[in-house]
Design brief:
InterPro entries: Glyco_trans_2-like, Nucleotide-diphossugar_trans
Strand content: 15-25%
Protein name: Glycosyltransferase 2-like domain-containing protein
Distance between the termini: 31 Å
Organism: Rhizobium aquaticum
Order of helices and strands: EHEHEHEEHEEEHEHHEHHHHHEEH
Oligomer: single chain
Shape: globular
Domain Glycosyltransferase 2-like: 1-105
């Protein structure tokens, strides 16, 4: 779990994780904060927990990609999973990993559904999360993943894939193989979760997916996800990210023929990181452009206001007019919806495959509390059948 300047959430998530009594886990906590004194003082009180490996803030703060790099390097487990400092992951996931390994010895990547949680202040009103009613374990073919990832098949704002080292887990042996295969680093591209996903999906032997959730994607007021839909907030956080990186990655030469800077939105950021991967490693995948244009339209439609929508639409439209002779401009057709048309009380109840809850269900004030409340509706990890 890498962290930067979010010590309150970092500490809360550490408490939630180490509350587990399991002894077959290792927790790597990497602080990268401007104030280097807060977290060492906190972790010193946990010195008796042999599962903890703490990486203190360096004298000069690292970029995100370099902080993730040292976090991966410090981990020694046979399987590795990353989460953010405002997230949560169930330590009992280890039981499922062991059960899947027993049935599929050559599995390299395991993923699962996730719940969502917005910390107080991240959104002006309560958001909704959904719990799958089943607990199926299924194998996913690489061809399907390639179409969904690099072909943007069936994508919303982003491609529908979950296999990476982030809120999913990868066999350490594959991590080391990919380090040698790709740039002699664990993470190369600054959009680290995408960098991880592209490499794992391109190289893993077998992929297994759990319908049952095992983690919570958190969003605190300073998360990048909390700025989604708000152009000014996104621009500020984008500038901070580039300052930490030490360069504007949107100006990298490899992106000269891709007129969608990551500052435009989440679809553009993923598109740019994919373009980098394609060009750097010669990946060939045809027929993705129209699907990408539709995702950019959906990205615009998530705008927080009419003004934000118009700014986002104009940026993307300008890119599509010049990209590949404008061939995909017609697929980019965002439609603005007034907030009043979409706003309303959080929907709760059951649809055929999901239980829908407000994120404050049962008084939850943290991702761990939401997960624990939801766990009462989910099959325990040790009881999940793995009929592979």
């Amino acid at each position: 779990m890498p962290s930067r300047n979010r010590q309150i959430y970092f500490q809360e998530t550490i408490r939630a994780l180490i509350a587990s009594t399991r002894s077959d886990l290792e927790f790597v906590f990497a602080d990268n904060s401007d104030d280097a004194t807060i977290m060492p003082a906190f972790v010193s009180g946990l010195a008796a927990d042999a599962r903890i490996r703490f990486l203190a803030s360096p004298e000069k703060q690292l970029s995100m990609v370099d902080n993730w790099e040292r976090t991966m390097a410090a981990a020694t487990g046979r399987w590795v999973a990353f989460i953010g400092d405002d997230d949560y992951m169930d330590p009992d996931l280890a039981d499922l990993i062991a059960a899947i390994e027993a049935r599929v010895p050559d599995v390299d990547a395991i993923a699962w559904n996730r719940l969502t949680f917005h910390w107080p202040g991240a959104r002006p009103h309560e958001m909704q999360t959904s719990i799958p009613t089943g607990c199926r374990i299924v194998e996913v073919a690489r061809d399907d993943l390639m179409r969904k990832t690099f072909g943007w098949e069936g994508a919303g704002r982003v491609p529908n894939f979950m296999f990476s080292a982030y809120h999913a887990t990868v066999r350490r042996a594959l991590v080391e193989e990919n380090r040698s295969r790709f740039g002699n680093r664990y993470f190369e591209h600054p959009v680290v979760d995408q960098d991880s996903a592209f490499k794992i999906i391109s190289t893993a032997r077998r992929f297994v997916f759990s319908e049952r959730p095992f983690s919570v994607l958190g969003a605190c007021p300073t998360s990048n996800s909390a700025a989604m839909g708000r152009v000014d907030d996104n621009a500020r956080r984008h500038a901070e990210f580039m300052a930490d990186l030490g360069r504007n990655m949107d100006q990298d030469a490899v992106l000269a023929d891709f007129p969608f800077p990551s500052a435009y939105g989440v679809a553009a950021a993923i598109g740019a990181s994919q373009h980098w991967f394609r060009k750097t490693y010669g990946l060939k995948h045809d027929g993705w452009e129209e699907n990408f244009a539709r995702s950019c339209a959906i990205d615009c439609e998530s705008a927080a206001s009419r003004a934000d929508f118009e700014i986002s639409r104009a940026r993307y439209e300008a890119g599509f007019r010049v990209w590949k002779d404008g061939r995909f401009l017609s697929a980019f057709s965002p439609v603005y919806t007034e907030p009043g048309e979409a706003a309303g009380a959080v929907f709760t109840g059951i649809t055929p495959l999901l239980v829908h809850l407000g994120e404050r269900f049962a008084g939850a004030a943290t991702p761990r509390e939401l997960y624990d409340a939801a766990a009462g509706m989910m099959t325990p990890a040790r009881e999940i059948p793995v009929p592979l």
